[in-house]
Design brief:
The chain is of the alpha/beta class and about 625 residues long. The protein is about 35% helix and about 15% strand. It folds into three domains: about 325 residues, Alpha-Beta Barrel (TIM Barrel), CATH 3.20.20; about 55 residues, no CATH class; about 260 residues, 3-Layer(aba) Sandwich (Rossmann fold). Helix 4 runs antiparallel to helix 11, helix 11 runs antiparallel to helix 12 and helix 12 packs antiparallel against helix 13. It starts with a helix and ends with a helix.
Length: about 625
């Protein structure tokens, strides 16, 4: 008991009255074919094939979400630079690296090499580091080999990690986390006397110095906020010293991958789970908080930028810098992969490590404009990161989210253009050029927009209208025909398509008549008032309403020609086909003569865009042909 009290006082001694240090748990175990020669288990789980791509240009990986920069290799310096810069801007204090030791078992040697490569980047960013030893790494060794390997690992860590000035220490003692212990009985005597912290349900019985909390999933159950908050309260009430946790949610893919049953789930609630778990951790008055995790895609606990959540989770950290600066490391990584000027990119990186983000952005923009001149896909230009909302009223959120990419033929003149809005329930998603629309003789303008709950309705509609207006103003500069601009999108993007195309006030604000749009091509839209808007008002998802934020409210005779596509009525989202069928009928009753409804048999909501794109291209071709006859 006296030892526990002494350790507890030691743990608190250096931080009395100070803000807790914010650490993030980091996985160094990812391998890609282009860097390591083969896709690693953590991207495939021997089930998914990253060589296959879906319609939205996402590789098939072992995750419910997708990295914003795509699957990366943990030994790639470009990825490590990207991570370190993001962590710096996000205001993190340090990283806990998941460490499997020094053995040659499975991919452990690769993980160790990646750890050693990452540490210099962390130091450059001014971050500290610690390791979390996975003692299960040695369980396959027999005849005492497990004990010998663990001793070897820990003595190596003591010599090379614990003595490092950047290693996390409390009152002069290095901090060692153990993910368990799951295999070993902890009786290791190290001269550096590290503070050893294990999982909260295993630490005390193994005689460890303290415990760290983790997302409390178990038994395959979906946990409510009330449930996981109670679990954490119980952990923080223990007398053993503890490291509190914060997490964005939990959604593993083990069952789908055939690895084993799911551990359970905790909904992210559009970032609310991270906010609440972080607030609870701060209230616990612990000197250290560990975020679980930076990048565990298999368990769905990532706070790093993803296609679904963008920068949302980093923006919620208490010492995050300017949200608009978070996009700069993404640009740096992407420009490096596109073969941009290495010297300029190195300089931009150096400026970011110095927190000189304005200079870094100018350098990145210069490299980007140089790359815009190159052709891809056998004759197309890709111009990225164009800001479509400018002026004195531009906010940091606009600077980050109100951007678009233009993919356009390099030599064909003139050409038709499709403005594409991503889906995601108005709460998540990221722009991309759909693969089936590439190399089709048309331009694609892929636009982001601000998301709920960061903004409320009708901000996302205003953004969509601004992106459409920008295209009308600028597409001729790329060689496009302003008279052949089509608007399309999937799900939430289809909702925005209809709102801007039917309710004329949104585009009128920008001096554009919605009837100038050559055609509307909504793929599985919500045509009643969107469920996210209803949720903002406290209205249940099962309670439909129709008001001026419902496309159905604005059916009109003079709207642009429309191709309305849904998935199979038996596989679609709840009531989605029936909504669209009624909407199509009401458009015709209003006198609109160019509404076509197409149901894609056998396809659910997520997969229906793939077979819808040929219909979209045929629709454009038909209108182009009819226009040529006039």
């Amino acid at each position: 008991m006296f030892r526990v009290i002494a350790i507890f006082l030691t743990f608190l001694a250096t931080v009395s009255g100070a803000e807790p240090r914010l650490l993030v748990h980091y996985m160094p175990w990812y391998a890609t074919k282009d860097v390591s020669g083969a896709w690693g288990w953590h991207w495939t789980m021997n089930h998914f094939d990253p060589e296959q791509k879906k319609w939205d240009d996402q590789r098939k990986i072992a995750s419910h979400d997708y990295p914003l920069i795509g699957p990366y290799d943990s030994g790639d310096d470009h990825a490590l630079e990207y991570h370190a810069l993001l962590m710096k801007i996000a205001g993190l204090d340090g990283v806990v690296i998941d460490w499997y030791g020094t053995s040659e078992i499975n991919d452990h040697a690769m993980n160790h090499r990646n750890t050693l490569k990452f540490i210099p980047w962390l130091k450059k960013a001014g971050l500290s580091f610690a390791v979390c030893y996975e003692d299960q790494a040695v369980k396959s060794l027999k005849d005492g080999g497990d004990i010998k390997q663990a001793e070897k690992d820990l003595h190596w860590a003591e010599e090379h990690f614990f003595s490092d000035p950047s290693y996390v220490k409390q009152h002069g003692r290095p901090l060692l986390l153990v993910f368990g212990p799951q295999h070993l009985k902890w009786k290791f005597d190290l001269g550096s006397k590290p503070l050893v912290f294990g999982l909260s349900h295993l630490a005390k019985q193994n005689g460890l110095d303290g415990a760290f909390a983790w997302p409390p999933v178990a038994g395959g159950k979906s946990l409510s906020p009330e449930h996981w908050k109670k679990e954490l309260t119980n952990i923080y009430a223990q007398k053993l010293p503890f490291i509190a946790t914060a997490f964005p949610g939990f959604k593993d893919i083990y069952l789908q991958a055939g690895v084993h049953a799911s551990y359970g789930s905790i909904a992210s609630r559009a970032g609310l789970t991270l906010s609440e778990s972080l607030a609870q951790a701060l209230e616990s008055k612990t000197p250290l908080i560990q975020i679980a995790t930076w990048n565990d895609y298999g368990e769905g606990t990532m706070i790093e930028p993803t296609r679904s959540n963008g920068f949302r989770h980093l923006e919620k950290l208490p010492r995050c810098g300017n949200p608009a600066d978070l996009r700069l490391p993404v640009m740096l990584y992407q420009l490096r992969k596109r073969g941009g000027d290495a010297a300029k990119l190195d300089e931009a990186s150096a400026r970011m490590f110095e927190s000189k983000f304005t200079k870094a952005e100018a350098l990145l923009a210069s490299v980007s404009r140089e790359l815009d001149k190159q052709t891809i896909d056998g004759g197309y230009h890709l111009t990225t990161e164009l800001l479509y909302r400018e002026g004195n009223g531009t906010t940091a959120a606009m600077n980050q989210r109100c951007r678009l990419d233009v993919y356009a033929p390099a030599t064909k003149r003139p050409f038709s253009t499709v403005i594409w809005f991503h889906g995601g329930g108005l709460t998540q998603g990221e722009r991309s050029i759909p693969l089936p629309l590439r190399n089709q003789g048309i331009a694609v303008v892929a636009a982001n927009y601000r998301l709920s709950p960061g903004v409320k309705s009708p901000v996302f509609i205003e953004d969509a209208a601004a992106a459409i207006a920008w295209t009308f103003k600028h597409i001729a500069d790329f060689g496009g025909d302003p008279q052949h601009i089509f608007v399309s999108g999937h799900s939430a993007g289809a909702y925005l398509t209809l709102m801007c195309g039917l309710d004329k006030k949104w585009l009128t604000t920008h001096g554009v008549d919605a009837d100038q749009i050559a055609g509307l091509i909504p793929l599985s839209p919500q045509v009643i008032t969107h469920f996210t808007i209803r949720d903002e008002r406290g209205i249940a998802e099962t309670q439909p309403i129709i008001d001026d934020l419902a496309p159905l409210f604005h059916v009109r005779k003079t709207a642009p020609p429309m191709l309305l596509v849904t998935g199979d009525r038996e596989k679609e989202l709840m009531g989605r086909y029936e909504e669209c069928a009624y909407f199509g009928r009401m458009m015709k009753l209003a006198g609109h003569k160019h509404t076509t409804l197409h149901e894609l048999d056998g396809f659910d909501h997520g997969k229906m865009p793939e077979p819808a794109f040929p219909l979209l291209l045929k629709f454009i071709e038909t209108i182009e042909t009819e226009s040529a006859k006039k």
